[in-house]
Design a protein that fits this description.
Strand content: under 5%
Oligomer: single chain
Helix content: 55-70%
Shape: globular
Order of helices and strands: HHHHHHHH
Largest sheet: none
Radius of gyration: 18 Å
Amino acid sequence: MTDTNKKRPNPVDVHVGARIRLRRNMIGLSQEKLGESLGITFQQIQKYEKGMNRVGASRLQAIGNILNVPVTFFFDDMPGQSDKPKGFEEESETTYVVGFLNSSEGIQLARAFAKIGDAKVRRKILDLVRTLGHEEE
């Protein structure tokens, strides 16, 4: 094994870390607060979320409890884990949602959008975003 291989995070650890970050951001919990709840530093949370450090089973269970999700949540939608052939199948909607919510803009937009009470305004915003994204229905 070469030194460059040692420095690359394991894809499973990267996926689990991304799911931790996704859920933490979904509920609006800071890295600091999650770290405090676990008795570790926010820097350790950063390493978990980047996949640089592997999360042990008991720690992953504790994270799941704090984030109010089952441990299986962290393994959902893992690339290469599907039994069905891909062929011409498009990416699942979940893939887009995870990517969207893993960006700070996506989280901010989702939070702001959720606060809009008027359904007509929400539809107009959706139409605007579709137009800007050149999306066709």
